Amino acid sequence: MKKIAKTLMLTAVISMAFTVTAFAPKAQAWEPKKPVEFIIMAGAGGGADQIARLLQGLIEQKDLSPRPFIPINKPGGSGGEALLYLQGKAGDDHTVLVTLNSFYTTPVIQDIGVDVSNFTPIGRMALDNFLLWVHSDMADITDLDSYVAAVKAAGGKWKVGGTGSGQEDSILTAMMEKEFGYEVTYIPFPGGGTVAKNLVGKHIDSTVNNPAEQSEFHRAGNTKPLVQFTAERLPAYPDTPTAKELGVDMQYYMQRSINGPPGMSAEAQEWYINLFKTLFDSEEWQTFCTDDGLACDTWLAGSDLGEYHASQIMLHKELIESVGSSAITGE
Amino acid sequence: MESILPLLGAGLLEAVQPLNFLMILLGCTIGLMVGAMPGLGSVNGVAILLPITFLVPPTAAIIFLAAIYYGAMYGGAISSITLGIPGASTAVATVFDGRPMAQAGKADKALTAAAVASFIGGTISVVLFTLFAPPLAVLALKFGPVEEFALMVLAFATFIGLGGDDIPKTIFSILIGLVLATVGLDIISGQPRLIFGDIPGFLHGINFLVLAIGIYGIGEMLWTLESSQGKITVHKVRMSLGILLGNLKDVKEYIKTTSLGSMIGFFVGTLPAAGATPASLMSYGLAKTFSKDPESFGKGNVAGVAAPEAGNNAASTGSMLPMITLGIPGSPTTAILLGGMIIWGLRPGPLLFTEHPGFVWGLIGSLYIANLVTLLINLAFIPLFVRVLTIPFSILAPVIYILCVVGGYAPTQTMHDVWLMFLFGVVGYLLRKLNYPVAPAVLAIVLGPLAERSLRQSLISSHGDPLIFVERPISAICIALGVALILYPVIKKRLNRKKQAA
Amino acid sequence: MAVIMGLCSIGLMVKSAELNIGWIDGRGPGSGSWSFWLSAGMLLTCIATLVRWFFGTTPESRNRELYMTRDTVLVVGTSAGAILFLLVLTHLLGMYGALILFLLFYLKFIGRHSWGLTLVLTIAIPVAIFCLFEWALKIPLPKAWTEPMFYPIYDLMYS
Fold first, then answer.
1. Is B385 helix (H, G, I), strand (E, B) or coil?
2. Distance (Å, whole) CA C89 – CA B459
3. Mean pLDDT computed over B89-116
4. HSE of B221 in the Cβ direction (CA atoms, 13 Å)?
5. CB atoms < 10 A from the CB of B191, how many?
6. Tally of domains in chain C
7. For testing the chain C interface, which of B176, B223, B228, B438 should be mutated: the one with the most C CBs within 10 Å?
8. CB B448 within 8 A of CB B279
9. Which tens digit of pLDDT belongs to each residue from A162-180?
């Protein structure tokens, strides 16, 4: 009897010890203590917004965080407002930002006094691609050469729609102007969806859009892609050549990453990295990437992402300098 | 026609399935509540509930979200009428006549009119949607920047009648609204504009709700305080089923403006970029222009409540059209709905109608049902809402101030906007004492950005040639109509004078 | 008032002129021109109002009553002051602390309600706001340094 009791006690002690060791790191590890502000540097309904809301939903569905993530849109000043907000939140562990490339371009084009290399890198969720699109009725234009010829013939009156001066597609448009030695009229619209619609309605002649913004119109036979600005052909567009194949080395991607404010604690950074890694590997996220034409193969986190940011900031500074910021703002 | 009916039938059946019907009931009630809170609109309700909808099938989810959207459109009128603060940007025009009616002790009548007009607007709109969705999608495609600007000219023309008698002051009010609308980032050049003192809060521009809540919430309360000199006013309220039914009989007083407003609302709603707020304002403006008794508008004319409510509900249904067929959100709320659809793996676009008929027709069917359900819920709650007015002013006032402050904070979650709102409230009050009309400023801040952007986009594409606006047929028609509307009151006055002379 | 607004208009014109206010060939108006000419228009309407005031064409200009009587200033001023106070306190104490003080002041000293009613409302309204915004709608309101006090409530809400 005594022996049994002893054994039982021992078992209890051992199992308790195990329990303690098993839970000890978790008890000490950082966890959010209040709702996390999930800042989106673009408006409601855009690509970054969709990503944030999908991630928020997945976090809740999979019960990955003890506190909810609350998406807040701060689209002001091409994301400048969001960057300033995060800068002001330095040292805060309960704020994260979903980015697009205005993360790099806005501090360069607008003098807002934010250095994004101080921000705490968490993880890169996806890379978005760009393609050049025209209306399907433009029978004469079948490839890049005929496109360039048509634009040159229009003598500066060729209308390219985009999502706003200083946005990704305007940089790519300016890069093309420089490369091919033509000039176009750039017309900004609010959001890639509106650009796509204006192309289908023939209010503009061509556009540089993400696959997600055009895929349905392409499937309906309204628009056609001419060239992809990627390293390799996307699986969804096997017949469209890349610029590189055509001898024009022009590649441009838009990153979608998660970043914290400057000076976020290392424990919190680690917690967020683990969280977003789990999300990145989830089936739902990978399906979303495939459907949306995003590239989600490589996971970059922490200091690796920081290095990636540093190289992208350099690249964007060079790009903006080489095309001149006036080519982007139009004034 | 033959092909639509079975599809619609299937859609209606889909909508009354237990789970979907439950979603409609829940959504409408939540929407009504969120819509009734100043500062919070359907955007908040839809955005917050989006993650929950991962738990149910997509059709049930979109029905739920659409029901919230719908309910919020009804709900916006409630605080506009009872408290005098627009519950949502779409309900600003409802304040113009709803508030005076409530002050005259006719809140029940105004609320009934709002509910009935919303129902009529929603129903006309959903019928039009059912019948003409595909051709309208083609028309929406024809609307480029040039046509958008022409539509804005038309919209401004409908407001001409809204100003006071003092023309310089009315123009001043319009202009200040337009200038405030330019604050923020210039979309064409990407440069920040009018960022006073480099305060980052100005970068997102001046939210329309900030001005509306400031002027109508805080400004209006200060004005009421002054006119009552702090005396407690208690409104007499009577409410019974008999009165309710009696109020329903008044429908004939506003059926004409309601139907007109519904058509306009639906049409404006289907155009991407416009949305329900301009629709409700245009509907109000037209109701006044074509009224036999325009003088009574703004002083408690029941048609002035019915017109904007019909307009905004019709537009909210209309704005589903570009969302479904073109994948373009016509309003911030549909932007989030759109995001939801993409997350569920449904790609909105020209093929959605043919590839996912069950989803699309289920949604359309649910709109019919949601309309009816919201009307009934709303009518049932009217006695409760009316009771709000019996609360003593010295309790109601701080509660309204708090709702304004919290409501001003909620949309962008910055204190910056709350300060601005307070400033607008005080300045609005001071200007109002000098007979400056404030409504035109509120209208201008809604339409200003749309007008400026489309004007400049058009001029860029025409290389600076203004003739583009009369060369394109749709745009020429809109501008001609606009000019006609501006001249209409003048001509009417002339004719009346001649009649009197004769 | 027209004078003040006129001065504001000039200020806006100057501010707009920081950007390109001219017509750019082939691109239409520059980014500052829309706001510049609108402000110019505001200035004109203010001048028109002043002229009309001078000649006494508007009813307000013939109005010999005081713009604001002493009573009005008192009634309206206290209310406006109370809101100002609420906003300043929000920065210092967070929204909830500020709400409690604001309600206490308004109900007791302006409304002159009984202590019982005042206390019930002072507690009930912030609680209602909390339930609606933080819990149902998930919109966190500013809390300044009172934030840690809410941690136990979050534990309760999300457990």
1. helix
2. 48
3. 85
4. 29
5. 24
6. 2
7. B176
8. no
9. 887 778 888 888 888 888 8
**A49 and A162 belong to one structural domain:** no
pTM: 0.79
Burial state string for A205-220 with b = 16 or more CB within 10 A and e = fewer than 16: bbbbbbbbbbbbbbee
Find the CB nearest A68 among C24, C27, C158. C158
Quick one: which of B285, B272, B375, B363 has its CA closest to B315?
B272
| Domain shared by C6 and C75, yes or no | no
Same structural domain, A50 and A83: yes
The token pair that represents C63 in the structure block = 């109005």
Going from the C-alpha of C43 to that of each of A242, C6, C29, C53, the distances in angstroms are 56, 5, 21, 15
Residue B18 near residue B59, CB atoms below 8 Å? no
Query: What is the per-residue pLDDT across A278-326, written as a single tens digit (0 to 9) for each?
Result: 999 999 899 888 887 888 888 999 899 999 999 999 988 888 887 666 6
Residue-number span of the structural domain to which C85 is assigned = 70-158
Q: d(Cα B369, Cα B284) in Å, to the nearest integer?
A: 26
Tokens of B58: 């997509």
C55: which residues sit within 8 A by CB, 6+ positions away?
none
Q: Same domain, yes or no, for A237 and A265? A: no
Residue C131 shares a structural domain with residue C114: yes
Q: Would you say B321 and B133 are in contact if contact means Cβ atoms under 8 Å apart?
A: yes
Give the strand pairing for A69-73 and A36-40.
parallel
Amino acid residing at B36: A
User: Which pLDDT tens digits describe chain C residue by residue (159 residues)?
Assistant: 556 666 666 666 655 555 555 555 555 566 667 777 777 777 777 777 777 666 666 555 555 555 666 777 777 888 888 888 888 888 888 888 888 888 888 888 877 788 888 888 888 888 888 887 877 777 778 887 777 778 777 777 776
Determine the Cα–Cα distance for residues A308 and B98; give it in Å rounded to an integer: 57
The residues near B391 (Cβ < 8 Å, ≥ 6 apart) are: B399
Q: Which domain holds residue A288?
A: 36-127+253-323
Alpha carbon of C55 to those of C50, C61, C63: distances in Å?
9, 8, 13
Q: What is the CA radius of gyration of chain B?
A: 22
Which residues in C lie closer than 8 A to residue B40 (C-beta atoms)?
Answer: 137
Flag whether the ipTM exceeds 0.90.
Answer: no
Token pair 């021992």 is found at: A10
End-to-end CA distance of chain B: 53
**Among C41, C62, C83, residue at a domain's last position:** C62
Nearest CB among B188, B332, B340 relative to A188 is that of B188
Q: How many beta carbons lie within 10 A of that of residue C70, not counting itself?
A: 8
**CA gap B137, B128 in Å, rounded:** 12
C-beta neighbour count of B462 within 10 angstroms? 21
- Asked if A236 and A139 sit in the same domain, the reply is yes
- Report how far residue B117's alpha carbon sits from residue C83's, in angstroms, rounded to the nearest whole number: 36
DSSP-based three-state secondary structure for A232:
coil
Report the C-alpha gap between B347 and B327 in whole angstroms: 8
What is the token pair recorded at A117? 């290399």
Selected residue of C12, C70, C113, C129 to mutate for chain B interface (largest B Cβ count, 10 A) = C12
Q: Chains with 3 or more CB pairs closer than 8 angstroms to A?
A: B, C
Beta bridge pairs of residue A95: A37
Cβ atoms within 10 Å, residue B238: 10
CATH code, domain with A263? 3.40.190.150
Chain-chain contact of C158 with A33 (C-beta, under 8 angstroms): no
- The reply to whether residue A45 touches residue B339, judged by beta carbons under 8 angstroms, is yes
Question: What are the backbone angles phi and psi of residue B250, rounded to the nearest 5°?
Answer: -70, -5
Domains identified in chain A, total number: 2
Query: If we measure between CA atoms, which residue out of B292, B283, B281 comes closest to residue B263?
Result: B283
Which CATH number fits the domain that encloses residue A145? Answer: 3.40.190.10
